[in-house]
Structure formats: structure tokens, C-alpha cells
Amino acid sequence: MGGGGQQTESSEPAKCDGVGPGGGRGGSAVYTWEEVQKHCHRGDQWLVIDRKVYNITQWAKRHPGGIRVISHFAGEDATDAFSAFHPDPNFVRKFLKPLLIGELAPTEPSHDHGKNAALVQDFQALRDRVEREGLLRARPLFFCLYLGHILLLEALALGLLWVWGTSWSLTLLCSLMLATSQSQAGWLQHDYGHLSVCKKSSWNHILQKFVIGHLKGASANWWNHRHFQHHAKPNVFSKDPDVNSLHVFVLGDKQPVEYGIKKLKYMPYQHQHQYFFLIGPPLLIPVYFHIQILRTMFLRQDWVDLAWSMSFYLRFFCCYYPFFGFFGSVALISFVRFLESHWFVWVTQMNHLPMEIDHERHQDWLTMQLSATCNIEQSTFNDWFSGHLNFQIEHHLFPTMPRHNYHLVAPLVRALCEKHGVPYQVKTLQKGMTDVVRSLKKSGDLWLDAYLHK
User: Taking the complete model, does pTM exceed 0.85, yes or no?
Assistant: First the structure.
């Protein structure tokens, strides 16, 4: 799985401008950004939160969100990412306190790599407003009703077979209803995953295990570790696993040219916009994700997630074996996964694949998220069809915000983007989907040009 990238050996410890034994242990030292940025390697990692410098080298291995997601910010200012991922900062700060080694020198700016200080401050002010207005608080009734409509779809699919039997038309209808419930359960567990960050005993965490494990047959921990990397560094090669295409596709404007110049041809990339329909939507969930999930659960010995996953298949075969037998039930779940995979790929990729895909550029939080995401027009159908991920911009800026509040913060985000000249893209559902194919064709053409002529 992508994310983490190629890492080098640890650099020499940075020199300390201030006082404090052991290079700043105890938090009494001061550092420059030049010194902090040296500590960005696998065995030597520092980061900055609210001007405080932390040595996370050992803690990264125990980070609940996974070692990679926190390591992606080594040597950088992680203030906005810290706020975005942790709905209860006070709960997390007790883990940060022992890691504190100092702070930035008074002469140093609060932001690294020459980021736009005014934009960063305005976004942080917007986040403060969002918190004050309670937009990060979920309405339990909304999610209870949403879960209820998923369970109703499951019950109706099974009920049709009990009442009317297993004709081809009813089997197809049953498959469509199950694929719909699986897709909607995917969006729901996505909500619970973000809302349960750092609170392992919360109801959100238990509900995520139930929805992704018992209702879908997947692993919550696998999803969390993968998906949080995507949010931390969206569309950044070697850090976002969603753009790790395993040499099957070349993406964006930079990677195709790099592959072409190096004469790399693992696939006929000039035709990738065509073979995408054969190996992208049909195979992502039924093949690639299932191999990853099983491999991850066994390698990490995640027996709890494995038990949740097995409970799904036990329930499924108990329900459908009387109608279809063993092999018929296998064929049914395979067809349902095939349909669900198409739904998942188009919804998730229309917001990201046509956007900028590049190597690490050390952008501020808002600019990084806006360059990698776009929105799809709001409508009742689009909201339901995409699980409110048509508000991808707002979701990426505030990943712990419950989906029913996206439409409330969207005008504020758009106004902030207009003020600072940051593009805020909104597309129709049709254009979002067709842009996926157009972007693949454009990248394939760039590869062919570089491969033949450079």
C-alpha cells in the first residue's frame, strides 16, 4: 500500500540555539525552521504544533492513526493537520507533553516553507468560528436514520426472496439493493471513522466496527490507516495511497513525463483511459481491496477486525444459502461487490483524479486540500448518491465535521478562497465523471509524447 515513500537515514541532530540539556529536552530550547526541517527522516522526526517543537521519533510507532500519517509531517508545521484530525485536542495534548523539546525562536515565522501567513491565519480563524458555532458536533438522529435506511434495504432484499422466490429478475433486484446498501454503508462507516478519531471507547468507534465489519466484511483499522494518509497529503505521490497505482496507471501531469523520460512502460499508458473500464471500477473492491484487507489483518494480527469481518460472511451465507446454495451465494456476493466497486470508484475519483497530482510541495493546509479536491453540485440525489462526498472540499478541510453540516460551512469556505485567490471548483455530476476519463487520457498522451520524443 502506498504512503510513507522512500526514506533515508537519519540526519545529524540539529544544533540548538537555546538552553536545555540533551538538545532541548524539557522544552526549554529554541529552534529555527532550518533546524526543524533537518529532522524529517525515518529514525529522526520532529514537527511543530502551535510553535512548539516535538520529537515524535519514538511516538510515531505508537501513533493510533498509524506511523505513516504522522510521519508525513516530519520537519514541518503540523498545526492545521493536528486540529483537523483530532476532534478533542485536549485529550491528545497529554500524549504530546512528554515529546516537547522546545519551541520556535521568536524571530522565526509560525509557518514553514514560506507559506502565506495571512491565508493560514484566516483559515485558522474560520476553524475557530466553525467550532464556536457547533458545526463539528454530530446529530445522532441523522446517523440513526441513515443506518436505519441501510438496514431496511438489507431486510427488503432478503424479504423479496422469501416472499417471491429466486427468479432472475428478483435476483437482479436483490443484487442492486444489496449493492446500494453496501455503498451507503461504506459512506456511513466513513463518517464514523472520522468522528471516532482518538476515542477508542466511543460509540462512534464501536459503530464503525459494526458497519464496516459486520455490514460490509472489511477492516476498520485497515481503512483508518489508509484513509487518514489520504487526508493528510491528498494527491501527493508516496504519501497518499490513493494515487499509488502500482504502475497500472500514470496520473497527473508530472508522473507520465517522468515515466516517459525513463522509458518505463509497464502498461500501454496511451490507452489507460480505455482499459480503466476493465480493471479500475470492476476490480478495485472485489480484488485489490479484499487482498489488502486480508493481508493487513493477518500481518498485524488484528483478530478483532477479522472477527467482525467473518461475522458479515457468516450472516450473509446463513441468509442466502437456502436460496442459492454455496456457489450461488458466492456468485451473488461477487456480483454485489462488482456493482459496489463501480459506485465507489466513480464517487471517490471524480473529486480527486482530475485534480493536481504531484510530489510533495509543502503547501499550507487550505491550498493543499483545494488543489487536490473539487465539489460536485448539491442536490438531494447527489448528496445521497455520494454520501455527501460531493462536498469534498469541506470534508477535506474539516474531516471530523459531520456531513449534515457541510452545506453550512461551504459559503464560508468559498468566500475565504475568493479572498485569497484559491480556486474553488464545483462541477456537475456528469462532468465530474467524464473528467476522470479525460484526465487519464491526458496523462496517457503526456506519457506517450515523453516516451517517444525525449
Answer: yes
